[in-house]
Amino acid sequence: MNYSFLKDRHILVTGGAGFIGHHLVKKIIKQKPAKLYIIDNLATGMLSNIEEFLALPEVEFINEDVAKPSAVESITDLDYIFHLAAVVSVPKSFEMPFLTHRTNESGFINMLELAKRLKVKKICYASSSAVYGEQNQMPIYETAQLNPQSPYGLSKLLNEQYAKAFYEWESISSMGFRFFNVFGPGQRANSPYSGVISIFLSRMQKGENIQIFGDGEQIRDFVFVGDVVQALLRGAQSEKTFGLYNVGSGQTTSLNELYDVLKNLTNYSKEPRYQEARKGDIKKSAADIELIKKELGYNPKFNLKEGLAKLIETA
Ligand code: UD2
């Protein structure tokens, strides 16, 4: 895919030292932007993810909280914002609803004000499948009735509503991407809030015990991080001025199936330990991805097995 529209542009990536953010940064740098600002407070992001770019003259790293207006004060010219900085964990959002609200809402409004001040072409931001909550109909279409079941899901729904309002009130162009379960190289495994694939893989590789919350029959759409980056860049490139899209692989896997696949890939032999289901845990989460395919030409390149192979190869 050719993203030469980014050449000589001024771009901001928030959360650029994070899991998805640093993959996006890598891709953007290749297009030779005039300037790439990266904002990250390193709460969960890691400087080591972007270290190789910090010395480049076009890169400016701002070690700030995205919710602070001072984080963006010095920026005077900007074409695109990729807004990924957020509290991203459902369980953490129950423990820290205020932090989640402040980071995710104030951070988003900070971006909207910045977009207005600098007449940005478009904001592409991370929403989440968490806006759907528990749904009866699978797969889930973008038109489903939204029913968030955690402070995190609620914060992402508010982002979407602000985006829509600012599109109408201020003509600020935006695209929200409802990420399903993103996985891939660079996802942290050492926190209870990490994604299940990184946790399972790291524990299996160390021969440690695995916990499955609930009966393991919950289903997820695991989408490879490279495909998520593709969705974000296609969104920015598109002539469309507003959108909300599911970003998934279009395929589902139960946790028990995931366990078996990873077990075989790593030659792990222990049985999982089943624990009580997590609060706010969704039973079924399956993305319909026809809209983003049709409107943005999105074309996921990795299924779960291919993505896992790539992940293990780089681990
Ligand atoms: C994902 C997203 C979250 C939000 C949410 C929307 C990730 C990391 N998080 O949360 O940001 O968009 O979807 O609903 O992608 N599990 C275990 N054992 C473990 C860890 C997890 O059984 O050691 C289970 C967990 O209870 C859940 C599933 O694995 O049923 C996936 O967990 P997750 O934390 O990777 O992602 P999820 O779906 O809670």
Structure explained in plain terms:
- This protein has 315 residues and is of the alpha/beta class.
- The protein has a domain at 4-182 and 225-248 and 288-300: NAD(P)-binding Rossmann-like Domain (Rossmann fold), CATH 3.40.50.
- Helices cover 36% and strands 17% of the residues.
- It has helices at residues 19-30, 90-95, 97-117, 151-170, 196-206, 225-237, 255-266, 290-296, 304-314, and strands at residues 10-14, 35-39, 59-62, 80-83, 122-128, 174-179, 181-183, 211-213, 219-220, 222-224, 242-247, 253-254, 273-275.
- The strands form 4 sheets. The chain has a 7-stranded parallel β-sheet, with helices on both faces. A two-stranded parallel ribbon has the order 7-10. The chain has a two-stranded parallel ribbon with strand order 8-13.
- α4 (151-170) links the parallel β5 (122-128) and β6.
- α1 crosses α6.
- The chain is globular and about 55 Å long.
- The model has no long low-confidence stretch (mean pLDDT 96).
- It binds uridine-diphosphate-N-acetylgalactosamine (UD2).
